[in-house]
Amino acid sequence: MSQLRERKPNGQLASPAATPKEKRAHPMEFGGPLGAAGVSFGLPILCYIFAFVCNDVSGCPAPSLLHPSTLSLDQLKKEVGWQGFSSLLNVQTVGWTLAYYLFSLVLNAVLPAQEIHGVQLRSGGKLKYRFNAFSSAMVTMAIAAVGTLIYGAEFPLWSFIWTNYIPILTTNILISYILATFVYVRSFSVKRGNSENRELAVGGHSGNMLYDWFIGRELNPRITLPLLGEIDIKSWMELRPGMLAWILFDLAFIARQYANFGKITVSILIVTFAQAFYVFDALYMEPAILTTMDITTDGFGIMLAFGDLVWVPFTYSLQARYLAIHPKELSYMEIAAILAVQGAGYYIFRGANNEKNRFRSNPEDPKVKHLKYMETSAGSKLLISGWWGTARHINYLGDWFMSWAYVLPTGIAGYVILHSSPAPDSDGKSPADGSFIGGQPVKTEIVPGEAKGWGMLVTYFFMIYFAILLIHREMRDEEKCKAKYGKDWDEYCKKVPYRIVPGLY
């Protein structure tokens, strides 16, 4: 039910299981085929734009973009470090990226795991899930920590990520496309009444190939791999490679900042800590994904494949990448304000979800026994007091507040990178700082310049996008709850009139 749900860091929300009326008309979402095409092929381009426009060659954004009337494509290519299409992908990056995925699969297979049954499917059965994402992440982070202790900021993993950032992006885009196509084609082998509890997503078999490929045709696609056992593709992709890569990217950017400037700023530490706390909290609470909309309702298509493997790690880590190049210094007041916003957001988010989990698992728990609720004709209990009595999606508000801690440390973002020849030393030799252009040593200086403020289009994108995402998700969920509860939902909305922000929305 709508007020009894958990949201994952990539915007996934809990939702009731789909109605058993499989043959009922299910409206297309996201604008239908046209919207599906826009998201599927437009968002990868946006990821490239972010990667090139905010760079360590000329600035953030590239200076030419600030003067559109005199914009030259050749000059822009130089400013963004464009080296041709061949630079978008290389064999080494593909190999190491696939090795990363294989390593995660091996950890999933060999580490102790918690086995839990999911919610009941429309066909009546329940799927068993194997969860050990948190311990897998701890092993991965321990290896990275040992490597960093030995090699410092030049640990090969961190250097590889920084040097091959664009090829890694391309590789994961291709993996998401291939994976979505594989599960789409394989979904046509789903037969009614099969013993494997395979079934199609309610909204994933519209008959339009593009839309179904996007939204996901099969609900819970699974595959059995030699020596690695059965893998639930959707639940594994939700919290494994992409989510952990998000934090690995942040750490690589910290290493790059130290390599560039010989220091690590509080600003990049706040961003990384806030995001790591968010991710590891989700990994620790891994079983909570079993009641999310992604698991119970949505099929697995390019929407989730791209979101899990590309959108999350590459767009959510933009702030740390920015700070690796422009080490923003924060005052004590700025630090206190950012931490206060982060703390308030987490207090709302975790408090609301803990209340929900306690009420769902044991309504007689002393901590939730006093809460008021209304019963529906479907047999569900909808909370009308406590956190969930203030707004029907109060956890989204806390979620959004937490996103502020990701962007505020970048300040009034924007910088220009200046290159100049240094004056000779007293002995007549030119001091080299490790940077060369045309074989001559140059001095690199990073200043706000006229770019100040324009970089916020990149570093503050997440906060704006996340607000839109939460509102859109809330609207999707409201429609599903209305369809499930009917008049009971109307009555519930009268008792809890606000959607996300008490007294406002």
From TrEMBL:
Keywords: Lipid biosynthesis, Lipid metabolism, Membrane, Oxidoreductase, Steroid biosynthesis, Steroid metabolism, Sterol biosynthesis, Sterol metabolism, Transmembrane, Transmembrane helix. Its main location: membrane. The chain crosses the membrane at residues 30-53, 93-111, 131-153, 165-185, 265-285, 297-318, 400-418, 453-472. It comes from the Eukaryota. InterPro entries: ERG24_DHCR-like, Sterol_reductase_CS. It is a multi-pass membrane protein. PROSITE patterns: STEROL_REDUCT_1 (PS01017), STEROL_REDUCT_2 (PS01018). One of its GO terms (molecular function) is Delta14-sterol reductase activity. GO terms for cellular component: endoplasmic reticulum membrane. One of its GO terms (biological process) is ergosterol biosynthetic process. Residues 1-26 are annotated as: Disordered. It is found in: Membrane. Belongs to the ERG4/ERG24 family. PANTHER family: DELTA(14)-STEROL REDUCTASE (PTHR21257), DELTA(14)-STEROL REDUCTASE TM7SF2 (PTHR21257:SF52). This is Delta(14)-sterol reductase. The lineage of its organism: Eukaryota, Fungi, Dikarya, Ascomycota, Pezizomycotina.
